[in-house]
Write a structure and sequence with these properties.
This protein is of the alpha+beta class. The protein is about 25% helix and about 20% strand. The strands form 3 sheets. Strands 4-2-1-5-3-6-9-10-11 form a 9-stranded mixed sheet, with helices on both faces.
């Protein structure tokens, strides 16, 4: 479990509370991935740390946080991890300690929920119910005499469009998505399920149904189970995706990859050296910048090769 979690209480409760996890405590928890945006979120600070352990009124939470609490309660899970509430935001020491653990927060969560379409805390996770109108058309498949039905429905944005939603333009979220064992993406027009086995759209359209024939677009996964050599090229695709995403503090770019790197070191038995891998170092050095907006930070951030 993470260092701290939000105890969501019971369905009738009008408050939640911050709970410090006891040594060796083991329980299922959910995690929320969201955009902070430009609005002021409720945060855990040194001044309210003790108070938050007693009571956090739901009225103080943004709509996104309240929705996440509602989903967690309905799933029958007691605990929820939210970064702004479970990390002491005005403590540099606490942030540095927790930053290196964020990969494991995603990796061991029973379920991650993402507010994919929301630009800030007011956007929410849940949207008003929609009626996906569809028309049934009788058809005879192939030469068989049996009559089946084909359903025509409005094409809603699916996995191919997920990358364009506000949440998935942020750097930290890439690590959360890759490491999470199972995720429900609350998109703008449907829910999307993603786990290590399958990806499913609420509309029922297969994941690859709309892909162009022969397309070799990175699918957002690291393929290393059967052929390790695929991992290296997946890694470079990941870096290309990652460096194009926004991040509030540039010095956090390496920490935002550290969780993936730690897991991959165990899988590949390789040595990770600031975004590159020792076994593939000559190839890794052949990167180039593809955009003019990249600027030198003006102070030491990482080795020159990264």
């Amino acid at each position: 479990m993470p260092t701290r979690v939000i105890n969501v209480g019971k369905a009738a409760d009008d408050y939640v509370r911050l709970e410090v996890v006891k040594p060796n405590q083991n329980a299922a928890y959910m995690a929320l991935a969201h955009c902070w945006g430009k609005i002021q979120l409720l945060r855990t600070l040194k001044a309210n740390y003790v108070e938050h352990q007693k009571r956090i009124p739901l009225t103080k939470l943004t709509r996104t946080f309240r929705d996440a609490v509602e989903v967690t309660r309905q799933m029958g899970i007691q605990y929820l991890w939210i970064d702004s509430l479970c990390i002491v935001q005005d403590s540099k020491d606490d942030w540095e300690k927790e930053a290196v653990r964020m990969g494991n927060v995603s990796r061991f969560a029973a379920l991650t929920i993402t507010a994919a379409y929301s630009t800030d805390g007011n956007g929410g996770v849940l949207r008003a119910a929609y009626n996906p109108a569809r028309a049934a058309v009788k058809c005879t498949p192939g030469a068989e005499k049996a009559v089946g039905h084909a359903y025509l429905t409005y094409r809603r944005r699916d996995f191919s469009k997920l990358q364009q939603m506000p949440l998935h333009t942020r750097a930290w979220v890439l690590q959360e998505r890759i490491l999470a064992p199972r995720t429900v993406h609350y998109a703008d027009s449907q829910m999307l399920w993603e786990c290590r086995t399958v990806r499913l759209c609420e509309t029922g359209v297969p994941e690859n149904a709309l892909n162009s024939p022969g397309a070799t677009v990175w699918d957002g996964r690291l393929h290393f189970e059967k052929a390790l050599h695929k991992f290296w090229w997946n890694w470079y695709d990941l870096l290309h995706d990652f460096t194009g995403r926004g991040i509030t503090h540039g010095d956090n770019r390496l920490p935002a990859l550290s969780g993936i790197a730690h897991v991959m070191e165990g899988v590949t038995k390789g040595g990770y050296v600031a975004r590159l891998w020792k076994q593939h170092f000559p190839w890794g050095l052949l990167w180039r910048k593809s955009c003019d907006w990249l600027e030198h930070p003006g102070h030491y951030r990482a080795p020159s090769w990264s």
